[in-house]
Amino acid sequence: MKSKKQKQARRLAAAVLALSLTVSGSAFAEQTGTGSGTTGTSAASTAGNVQRFSDVSPQHWAIKHITKLAAIGIIQGYERAEYRPENSVSQQDVIVMAIRMMGLEKQALENKAETVLPVQVSDYAKPYVAYAFDRGLILTQEEAGDTSSKTAWGSRDATREWVAKLIIRAIGKEDLARQEAASSSMFADAEDMSDWANGYINAAAVLKIVQGFEDNGFHPQGKVTRAQMATFLSRADKELTTRSDRVSIGYVMELTDRKISVLNSQGTTDSYTISTNTVIYNAKDDTRIPLSSIKLTNEVYVVHNQGEALYVELTDDQEQMETYEGTLGQTFLDQMMVSIQQGTQSTLYKLASNVTITDASGRGLSLSSIEPGSILQLKRNMLLKENEISHIIVKQVPLNKTAEGTVLSINLEQKQVTFLEQTSGQKETYSFPVLATVTLPDGTISDLSKLRVGDTVAYTIKSNEAVSITIRKQADVTQSVEGTLESLSNDKKIMTIKKAGGSALGAYFIADNALISIDGLTNASLYDIETGDTLKLDLVNDKVVKVTVTSRSVKQYVFASIVGYDPDRKLLTIEADNGEFGVFRLTDSTAVRIGDATLPVSNFQSMFISNGNNKRKIDLKVSKDKIVQVEMTQYIEGTVAQINSTTNEMTIRTVGGQNLTFKAYASTKVELQNKTNGTLADLKVGDSIRANINLGDQTMISDIVMKKVGVYKVLYTTPSTRQVSVKDENGTLLTFVVDSNDKISNPGKSTNAFEDIQVDEYVKASFNGVTLANVTILNTLRGKVTAVDAALGTITVQDFQGNVQVQPLGSQFTIKLNGTTSAAITSLKPDDRVEVIRDVNDKITIHVATASKRVVSSYMYTVNQLILKPTGNNDKTSYSFFAKAYLHKGNQTVAANAFMENEEVTIYVLDDKIIEIEKP
Q1: Are 645 and 587 in contact (CB under 8 A)?
Q2: Residue ranges of the SLH domain (predicted)?
C-alpha cells in the first residue's frame, strides 16, 4: 500500500499540471520551464490574435515558422512575452511539441500520471514521453542505455541528429530513412554522426526539413535552438498524416476581406472570419503577403481558433478555374446567362445563382450594371460539379479614347494589337475591325499590313476597338535581299538588282556610309563593285546599309616573288610562296604602295623590278585577273604557327592561309599589350602578330608587334590624361590611353570625342602591342523584354528611355542568366531586364539581370549606394548604380534618394550593380 505522502505528491503534481494548462489559456501551450513546466508566459493564440514575441523581429529568419506554431498553440514564451529563439530546447520539450504538431495531445494526456518510464523526465512531460514510447517515436533500447550524463534524460539538450530521427518517425518516413541509410552522407562532417543517424539525416534533408551550414556540415551533435525547432516542425508539417484540429487545408471557395471559406479533402467547406490580426504568408518564399494575393481556388493552410483565422499560408497559387475572356454582347437576367463575343464567335454562358461580379480592382458590381461592349473575364470553378460561371471580372468598360504609344505586338489571326500607352506606361490590348485604317507618316492611307512592332503611333479607340492608327514614326525593320547587280547609278545613290530565284528587279536607295564587304579587301567601297556581282543586301527600312559581294573575293598573295613584268601590257608574273605562278594585270586604279607612300602606276617598274636574281617580295590583292593593290612587303600579319626560340625561327600563318618561315635577329623585340621589351619566348602558337620585315633582307624579321582585339566594359575614365580603365569578360583589368579622337569610332554619331566613352558602357578596342589602334563605342541595348518570338528569332525590348526595338538574334547568340549560359531563345521571357551587346566576333550576347524584391534601409549619398535590409538568405545589402540606371516609381523617373526606409522595391542587378529599381 502506498504511503499517504506519495499520494499527496501525486495530487500536487496533477494540480500543478492542471494549473499550468489553465494559465496558458490553451491545452496546446508548450511548457518551457525546467521543473514542473509552470514557468513562462503563454504564447498560445487566443481567438482573433496570434502571439507576437518581443524578441522576435519581423525580419527574423524564422518569424514565419514561430508565428505558425504559436498560432496552432504548440509553443509559448517566457516572461515579458519573450520567445528566446536562440535558447536550446530539451528532449522532453521536443517530444511535447512534436505530439502537439501531430494533433495527438488529447491521446497523450490520457496516459495515467502513474506511468513508469525508462527515462527521467519532468512531471508535465510524462504523458507525452510515455505516448512517444507507445507510438515508437522513441525506443527504450535507444534512450535508456545512456547513464553517463548527470542531467536527467528529459532535460538534456536535444541534438540535431536526435531531432531529425524524431521528426522522421513522427511523419511516418521510417522507410525512407532506411533507404537513405545505404547512401553516403550529404554533409561533410559524416564522421561526427552516430552510427544510426545517417539515414534519418539524409531523409530529413531530402524532404527539405533540415539544411546544412555554410561549411557543408550538419553539426549532428550541435544543440537545437527554439527557432530551429519551430522551423523543423513547420517544414515537416507538409508530410504529416495527422494534425492539430486547429489546422484546415484545402481550396478557397469564398474570400472577402472578412471571411475565408475552405473546401477540405473530405468535401466539407468551413468558413472562418478574417481580421486585421490575421497573419498571411506565402509558402514559396516564406514572405508576408496581403490578403489580395490569395485568389479563389488557391490551396491554403489555415490555423483557426473559435471560428477565426489566425494564420493563413498560401501553399499553391495555381487557380482551379477555367477562364474565358471576351466582349459582353447581351445579358439575359431572367435566365442567368450572358452572350460573349470571342473573335468572330458568340457564345452563351450559364451563370451560377451566387455568381460574384467585380471590377478589375475587386470592387463588387451587379450583373445588371455591366454595359454591353465591356471586356469580361469569366471563371468557372473546376472544383464544383456544376458547369456554371462562378465569377465575372469586368476588366474594361466600353472605352472611347485617343492616345499615343508604341506598338508592342500585332496578331492578325486574332485581330488584336497591343500598345504601350505613352502617358500611363501600361500595355493596352485591343481588337480591331476589318475596316481599321492605318495612316503612314507621309499621309498615305493603308491597312494593318503596314503596321510594325516598334512603330510610334497615335490610335483611336471606339467601343474597345482600335478603329484607326496613325504612324508617327516607323520602327527600324531589317531584312536581307539577294540578287545580281544590274546597275549602279552614277551618283552611287541607287542600286538595281535582279532578285534571286526569278527575273524580278528591285531598286534600292543606298544609305550614307553604307558598308561594302568583299572578302579579302579591306575598306572596300561602292567603286569596287562590278556589274554581274552576286550580292547580299542588308536593308533597314528598305534602305541599303550593307552590301556583301558573295560571288567573288579579293585574293591576297603575301610575300610573293616577282618573276617578270611586261610594261606594255602591264602584266605582272609572280611566284606565290606555295610555288604557284600567276599572271595579273595592273590598271590605272591599282594602288601601288611603298611604306606609307602611294605611287603612280607608271613608277611600278622602276621601283619594284630589280636587276639580277634579287626577287622583290610583294603583297598583292587580286580580283579575278586584276590587281587591286600591290605593295612592297614590309610586314607579315597572321598567327604564329610555329616558333623556335633556340634557332630564332618562326613560321607565320597568313590571313590567306600561307605558312611563311622567317629568321629573327638576336636583338628582335616583341611588343606585347602589357610588355614593350618582350622576346620570342613570350609568344605562343595562335597569337595574332604583325612581323616587320627588313627591306634589305626580306627573310629577316626586325621586330614583332602582338595584335589583339577585345570587347571591354568601361570602369572609369580620366579626361585630363585621356586614360580609360576597363575589364574584359574574364574580369582582367586594363588601362589604355586614347591619344586622338581620330582613333574613336562612334557609330550613329557624326562626331566622335573622348567624352563619348562612358562608364558602364562597352567598347571594342584593337591594340598593336601597347599602342591603341582604334576604339569603337558599342551600342548597348538595355531594357525590358516585351515579347519573345522563337519562330522569327527576335526579341522586342523597351529601353529605359521608352523606345521599343525589335532585335534579331540570328543563329549565333548567347544568353547569360544567373551564372549559366544558354543558346535557347526560350530561356528569355517577357519582363526580363536585359543587356544586349556584341562580342569581338559580332556575336550577340544577352545578359539577363537578376531580379529580387527587397526592403530599402537607406541611401548613402556620399558613395552613391543603396543600402537594403538583410534577408534570411544573407543576400548582399549594399549596391552601387549603373551610370544610366533606370530608377522609377510607377512611370515617374526619380532620384536614388527618393526611395525611403522600409519601402519594398524590386531591384534588377547586372554585374553586381543596380540597373533598375521599380517601385509600383
Answers
A1: no
A2: 49-112, 184-247
**Taking the CB of residue 235, how many other CB atoms lie within 10 A of it?**
17
Cell output for 144: 535508456
pLDDT digits (tens, 9 = 90+) for 299-348: 999 999 999 999 999 999 998 888 889 889 899 999 999 999 887 788 99
| Cα–Cα dist 290/848, whole Å | 29
Tens of pLDDT, residue by residue over 696-752, are 788 889 899 999 888 999 999 999 999 999 998 888 899 999 999 889 888 767 678
Look-up of cell digits 533540415 = 210
Q: Dihedral of the CA atoms 858, 860, 861, 866 (nearest 10)?
A: -70
Among 77-91, 664-678, 764-778, the minimum mean pLDDT is found in 664-678
Taking 70 as the threshold, does the pLDDT of residue 677 lie above it?
yes
Residues 96-122 have a mean pLDDT of: 87
What CATH code is assigned to 247-316?
A: 2.40.50
Q: Which one is the CATH code of 850-919: 2.40.50, 3.30.1050, 1.10.287, 1.10.10?
A: 2.40.50
Structure confidence at residue 44 (pLDDT) = 44
Common-topology check for domains 478-549 and 781-848? yes
**Angle (CA) 643 645 651, round 5°:** 25
Q: Which three cell numbers stand for residue 542?
A: 528598305
Question: Where is pLDDT greater, at 533 or 158?
Answer: 158
pTM of the model: 0.48
Distant-in-sequence, close-in-space partners of 696: CB < 8 Å, separation ≥ 6? none
Q: What is the CATH number of domain 321-396?
A: 2.40.50.320
Kindly list the domain boundaries of the chain, sorted by start residue.
4-158+223-239, 247-316, 321-396, 401-473, 478-549, 555-632, 781-848, 850-919
Q: How far is CA 276 from the centre of its chain?
A: 36
| pLDDT computed for residue 20 by the predictor | 34
The closest alpha carbon to 320, from 301, 299, 300, 293, belongs to: 299
Q: What is the pLDDT of residues 488-530, one digit of tens each?
A: 988 889 999 998 887 788 899 998 778 888 887 777 888 888 8
Q: Which of 713, 708, 700 is CA-nearest to residue 667?
A: 700
Q: Does domain 478-549 have CATH number 3.30.750.200?
A: no
**401-473 fold:** OB fold (Dihydrolipoamide Acetyltransferase, E2P) (2.40.50)
- Give Cα separations from 382 to 338, 355, 359, 387, 391 (angstroms): 19, 14, 22, 8, 12
Measured in degrees and rounded to the nearest 5, phi and psi for residue 199 equal: -65, -40
**What is the structure's pLDDT at 314?**
95
Rounded to an integer, the average pLDDT of 668-679 is: 86
CA distance 812 to 828: 15
The runs of H, that is alpha helices, within 759-811 are none
Half-sphere exposure of 686 (CA within 13 A, CB side): 0
Q: What is the pLDDT of residues 163-172, one digit of tens each?
A: 999 999 999 9
Cα distance between the two ends of the chain? 77
C-alpha cell at 298: 488557391
Query: Which residues are CB-neighbours of 145 under 8 A, at least 6 positions away?
Result: none
Chosen CATH of 781-848 out of 2.40.50, 1.20.272, 1.10.10, 3.40.50: 2.40.50
- DSSP-derived letter for residue 862 is T
CATH class given for the domain over 555-632: mainly beta
